[in-house]
Amino acid sequence: MNIHEYQAKSLLKKFGVAVPEGYVAYTPEEAEEAAAKLGGPVSVVKSQIHAGGRGAGRFKSDPDGKGGVRVVKGGPAEVKAEAGRMLGETLVTKQTGPAGKEVKRLYVEQGCDIARELYLSMLLDRATGRITIVASTEGGMEIEEVAAEHPDRIVRQAIDPAVGLMPFQCRKIAFALGLEGKQIGAATKFLSAMYKAYTELDASLVEINPLVVTGDGSVIALDAKMGFDDNALFRHADIAEMRDEDEEDPTELEASRHELNYIKLDGSIGCMVNGAGLAMATMDIIKLYGGSPANFLDVGGGATKERVTAAFKIILSDPNVEGILVNIFGGIMRCDIIAEGVVAAAREVSLHVPLVVRLEGTNVERGKEILNESGLAIVSADNLADAAEKVVKAVKEAQ
Ligand code: ADP
Ligand code: MG
Fold first, then answer.
1. Dihedral pair phi/psi, residue 224, rounded to 5°
2. Domain 21-110 has CATH 3.30.1490.20
3. Which pLDDT belongs to residue 92?
4. Can 207 be counted among the known catalytic residues?
5. Which positions in this protein are listed as binding Mg(2+) (predicted)?
6. Is the domain 250-398 a CATH 3.10.50.40 member?
7. Which of 73, 160, 227, 293 is the right S-S partner for 205, CB 3.0 to 4.6 Å?
């Protein structure tokens, strides 16, 4: 799960990470009030959406205008006016895709005197199994771009979980970032606080881009992105409450309500599979036969008829779906139950695209009988390759 910048900053601040002062605003009036409370000569009005690149992004209503992060020098009245121009408008950034995201909240923040913009993040490196710090002198840019163009400007530091983040590691990062004097102590404090937040909050990512050195030499987080391990959210009710459903894909949200593991992709063959590994293999084999999966969907080990129906509806709500492949291995689950679910769901949603079903495992014969007796145009497949070949062919023929 991801959260907004202002939420990430409030969490990080509690752990002692240096962030500028700011207030969230849902209306132009609240933005004005926030600027008045901040009181300084410069306020920055920042669109809160779950996507980066806001500064360089543009509003659909004003493609030649200013971006999603605006520096305002004219006091609270001007902040109010800018907020009015941003709220309710759709911001398109490199990360939102062409559809963009509607801005429903703003963060009004103290203006910061930036001397240098740096990059800093913590994430779990799955190759080493360790929380790893990634730092670069190239702040403000997307780290993927830096990695492609100047890989030498990125430093990494893996953290041994037995001892945690060590002060010498913080100094190493600070030196690599070209920090000096009292900034080194500030960076050590910053990194230690960030690591504490990462581990105690079960984060999966903390990205500070840019981390800035200010004119007077302090080191603060000017932007903050945090992601969390969904499986640990039950331990953090306060973070779970920060979920902003407006920022999530509606079909993925609906899937999570039915405890289905669904990820939308951009192909045309809908997949319904039990088990994540089998689901991955199914997507691969569809590709091998020249098709392209419309989604990843793991219905889980204990899928009921209701869940199978919900899964069908979610798959079919995607207008790109031109065929469906159901691939179930009945281990704990019985194939006859699955077949009943598939038949009921296909009837209920009045299926309009080819459906290929491959069943294997417990009660497979009975399962196949149910499919055959249903009178529905279900294509039965004997193995994974056969199923993939049949669904790709059926989709091509239907075109
Ligand atoms: P995004 O990464 O989505 O574009 P950022 O929060 O990183 O959003 O802001 C983009 C840029 O705007 C920053 O790199 C920085 O130059 C400037 N900026 C952001 N917040 C402030 C602030 N409080 N004061 C001054 N400049 C800011
Ligand atoms: Mg940023």
1. -150, 130
2. yes
3. 97
4. yes
5. 209, 223
6. no
7. 227
